[in-house]
Specification:
The relative contact order is 0.05. It is rod-shaped and about 90 Å long. It is mostly helical.
């Protein structure tokens, strides 16, 4: 059976979670708080995209450097022959 107040609270939490999954974080909050949450989420996403772009750029630079080293080694090998 359980405590009726607890059962209602659990149903409310389940409903809120489903609602947030479908419509995004903070949708169940009052407008002022929801705007803060949305701003924080947008900021975190922007930082994540920036870090990803930096990692890709670094990987490309590393690959180019490795290719230059290989080309230099091939030239040295050709000069020795």
């Amino acid at each position: 059976m359980g405590n009726p107040a607890s059962v209602i609270r659990k149903k409310t939490e389940k409903r809120r979670k489903k609602y947030e999954q479908r419509l995004g974080p903070g949708v169940y909050l009052p407008k002022a708080e929801r705007e803060k949450v949305n701003a924080a989420v947008a900021k975190a996403e922007a930082e994540s995209k920036l870090k990803t772009a930096e990692k890709k750029k670094a990987a490309v630079e590393k690959k180019k450097a490795a290719e230059k080293e290989k080309a230099a080694e091939k030239e040295k090998a050709a000069e020795k022959k």
